[in-house]
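notes to self, project folder thing:

trying the whole complex as one job this time. last attempt i did each chain seperately and stitching them together was a nightmare. two parts in total, labels are on each line so i dont mix them up again. if this works i'll redo the older ones the same way
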Amino acid sequence: MTLAVTDEIALPKKRNRVLAKFMKNRAAVFGAGIVLFFVLVAIVAPLVAPFDPIKPSFSTIRKAPSLLYWFGTDELGRDVFSRMLLGTRASLSAGVISVGIAIILGVPFGLVAGYFGGWLDASISRATEALLSIPFLILAIALAAFLGPSLTNAMIAIGLSAMPIFIRLTRGQVLSVKAEDYVEGARAIGLPDFWIMLRYVLPNALPPILVQATLTIASAIIAEASLSFLGLGQQPPNPSWGSMLNTAKNFMSQAPWMSIFPGSAIFLVVLGFNLFGDGLRDALDPREN
Amino acid sequence: MTNESALRPSGANVTVAPAASQPLLRVENLSVRFDGAPPGINVVDDVSFTLAKGKTLCIVGESGCGKSVTALALMGLLPTPPARIVQGAAYVGDQNLFSLSERERADFRGNRTAMIFQEPMTSLNPAFTIGDQIAEGILRHKNVSKAQAWERALEMLRRVRIPAPEKRLRAYPHELSGGMRQRVMIAMALANEPQILIADEPTTALDVTIQAQILSLVRRLQEESGMSMILITHDLGVVAEVADEVAVMYAGRIVESGSVDAIFEDPQHPYTIGLMGSVPSLGRRQGRLATIRGSVPPAELMPKGCRFSPRCPFAESRCASEPPPLTEITPAHSARCWYAPLEQHRGAAA
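result (full assembly):
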């Protein structure tokens, strides 16, 4: 052994670095806490709800918040707190599932467009731009109205409306990752295109997509609330925050608690996802240290 | 060693052992054009060379002279468009690389021809471990199990002298330094025992002590395996150290080629002479370090004749209008200059 290898340096593990950076960001941890809290609420909702959220009780119509009915009761005498607990499920799953749909459809399109370029890229990109030219909520409303009013259809409509953002983001990421030396290196060892796309391009293009996903969940929750508010989402008697607001608007002056609490919940969970997403973006950004 | 036979190049390649005189790789009249360039101006223009088995050819030239494009063309990695091979052939045995289908090219890459790149810091996939990436290339070309591929990857890390190879196999690229990563790149390139290794400025991004280590490592591995190497560099020190043959490129053309001794002792082309003169050396120097005046002309101003003529101290009117032929000085040495061989034209030219 004539060669002494002296050029060894130890760097801290990347994952730990990202986590440490995230934990240092107080707002991000706060956001993650809010999100976690609502996820827990959604899971345990049926177990902890003090009253039946569906069954009307005509002896307790529009009661103000009290020790018995923490958030008051609605126009059919149902406990607003119990309905909100159950509504968490509709809102969170609408956010997560619709963004899931947007990612599952959008990322492959963006990947193919960015990687292969040419006419494939041109046609996918033009179609994406056409979709992007329609405002997000208007498109979601149109699709939901077309598909028919139900929570599932609302999720599909929101997912399809959010898809173009992911196509565009993925395509841009792929274009920059594709120019990396390791992608050329992969070609130089003769790896096939689909393999390079899945193992070399996609994992390295993913971080900004994850960040965008958390931020889009926030908009999707608002979109679900809007669709439900318009009667195109969750159908009565099942609760969702948006549909609760829809009925609450008629009693704004007589029973403000009916709108204050679901409205605050939407505000909080959207804030949580936004803070979480921002923190994730900063933590994953290698330039800031 | 149960997996040894599986890891050798497939039977066909072994039996076509070329006669000693026949070169392993023969590049003939290779021209590469970029879309949008002025007509007749190719980034690589009419380049021919041969590479003998077990030998090292250094392609020397300044940035943008077409040396990397030549390498990428040979690997089949040119970005098309905008780059296109407009003429030429590259024979390995009697197979013309340029007439193979894209699929057959991919079977060649990383298997019979391999390449290492200039930037070790960015040439490894940050998302997977070193072992994963070396094994990947082996699994692509050899019919072996995953365990055998990892075994082979470990053996390769040992061969490129990486300390604690078992541990490094499971390390991610960002946990290694530049020199270590270049060793990993070499291990990846050589894992399938290629006949030809193309190294595109493999030491440029490394600091000087590591450069020497990597060069001697590559040279030793070459001796062990008997492969041929094309080393692309602008560092004449590296050339003197590892080359058997040298091809000097200027603005897309080979202006001089020959054995390393011939090039260093008796350079014939004014550009080569200029290059030799501009190498700083230890000890006293009289006056300023010599330079070559001017810079490479942009494509649209490229002269029709000798492309070096605008910067050449010896140029006369004929040089700019008529391209000089490749003149043989000795059987192993030729230069593309109207004045070659120099001795017959101007006594004390250099």
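what i see at first glance: Chain A has ten helices and no strands.
need to look closer tmrw
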